[in-house]
């Protein structure tokens, strides 16, 4: 019986290290990941090599990696049940990405929506922006992941990953699975506090999941609400208010319904509505802040988790690359066998 038929299905996912996680990271990725640990063999990565394509201050990268690791552990990713590691600690990621260039047409990369979106911000487009999806495909296929939890904005990249797997298999023999998408339809796209774009630190529209009460309020109070509600006495439209949408994740249904009704009748103002949301967010993440404080006080434990995770990840990656090199003829010592 093959290993694939005896092991649990495997998932891979990762997040760029930009510091502590925010609400969008939690609702769209971290919370679903925690649940998936019950069903899958999970490989969770801190994708620092992806992060370099965005530029930024290199001196902040190590701290950002540790902050994100603490966020992973605080929300319940379990190093006993999952592999948690840093991408740059497993060099096979970039090796496989380079080899995938051999089967990936440039036109496929240029059609990626995220490439088109990001390239407009560069006078001279770095090759890393174009090749980003190839490294992403290598991340996934290096572990022969059966599935990947993704948002709608990543579906196109996953389809490219599946296409790369098909092309490689056709050229060199059956090697990689066509990885499936796992989409949490109950979450959807989490908008930032501006109510316009996806929650992102680069846009400054986030709320950190490990933020203290005062910081949560300072962020939530800036959130954009119904633009047509100018005065406190104006009737609100909760259905178009992003603050009300966030209540759906942190406020019980009965209270949310009450807030919606009182908003429509102008019985509650936007400031009061935001204060309720801010309090609920603070309460919801209280246990996570406690766990984060524990891990921050145990830096050697965090280091050990990442070192052990890299060792476990590398064992899988090395096995895959032995197979890949052999099939691509990159095993010259075999000439003498």
From TrEMBL:
It catalyses: tRNA(Trp) + L-tryptophan + ATP = L-tryptophyl-tRNA(Trp) + AMP + diphosphate + H(+). One of its GO terms (biological process) is tryptophanyl-tRNA aminoacylation. It is found in: Mitochondrion. GO terms for molecular function: ATP binding; tryptophan-tRNA ligase activity. Belongs to the class-I aminoacyl-tRNA synthetase family. InterPro entries: aa-tRNA-synth_Ic, Rossmann-like_a/b/a_fold, Trp-tRNA-ligase, Trp-tRNA-ligase_bac-type, Trp-tRNA_synthetase. Keywords: Aminoacyl-tRNA synthetase, ATP-binding, Ligase, Nucleotide-binding, Protein biosynthesis. This is tryptophan--tRNA ligase. Its EC number is 6.1.1.2. The keyword Aminoacyl-tRNA synthetase applies. It is an enzyme of class 6 (ligase). Gene3D superfamilies: HUPs (3.40.50.620), Tyrosyl-Transfer RNA Synthetase (1.10.240.10). Pfam families: tRNA-synt_1b (PF00579). One of its GO terms (cellular component) is mitochondrion.
């Amino acid at each position: 019986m093959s290993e694939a038929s005896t092991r649990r299905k495997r998932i891979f996912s990762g997040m760029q290290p930009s510091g502590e996680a925010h609400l969008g990271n939690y609702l769209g990725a971290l919370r679903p990941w925690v649940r998936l640990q019950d069903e899958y063999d999970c490989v969770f990565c801190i994708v620092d090599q992806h992060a370099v394509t965005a530029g930024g201050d290199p001196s902040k990268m190590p701290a950002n990696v540790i902050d994100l690791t603490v966020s992973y552990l605080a929300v319940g990713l379990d190093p006993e049940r999952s592999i948690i590691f840093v991408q740059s600690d497993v060099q096979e990621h970039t090796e496989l990405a380079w080899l995938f260039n051999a089967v990936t047409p440039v036109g496929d990369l240029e059609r990626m929506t995220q490439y088109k979106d990001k390239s407009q911000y560069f006078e001279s487009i770095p090759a890393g922006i174009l090749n980003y999806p190839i490294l992403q495909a290598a991340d996934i296929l290096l572990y022969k992941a059966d599935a990947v939890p993704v948002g709608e904005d990543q579906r196109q990249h996953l389809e490219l990953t599946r296409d790369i797997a098909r092309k490689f298999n056709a050229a060199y023999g059956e090697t990689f699975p066509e990885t499936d998408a796992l989409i949490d339809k109950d979450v959807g796209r989490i908008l930032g506090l501006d109510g316009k774009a996806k929650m992102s630190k680069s846009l400054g529209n986030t709320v950190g999941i490990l933020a203290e009460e005062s910081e949560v309020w300072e962020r939530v109070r800036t959130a954009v609400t119904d633009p047509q509600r100018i005065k406190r006495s104006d009737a609100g439209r909760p259905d178009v208010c992003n603050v009300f949408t966030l209540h759906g994740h942190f406020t019980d249904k009965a209270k949310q319904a009450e807030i919606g009704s009182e908003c429509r009748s102008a019985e509650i103002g936007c400031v009061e509505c935001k204060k309720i949301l801010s309090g609920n967010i603070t309460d919801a993440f209280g246990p996570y802040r406690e766990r984060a404080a524990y891990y921050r006080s145990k830096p050697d434990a965090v280091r050990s988790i990442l070192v052990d995770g890299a060792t476990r990840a590398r064992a899988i990656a090395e096995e895959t690359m032995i197979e890949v090199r052999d099939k691509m003829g990159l095993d010259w010592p075999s000439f003498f066998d």
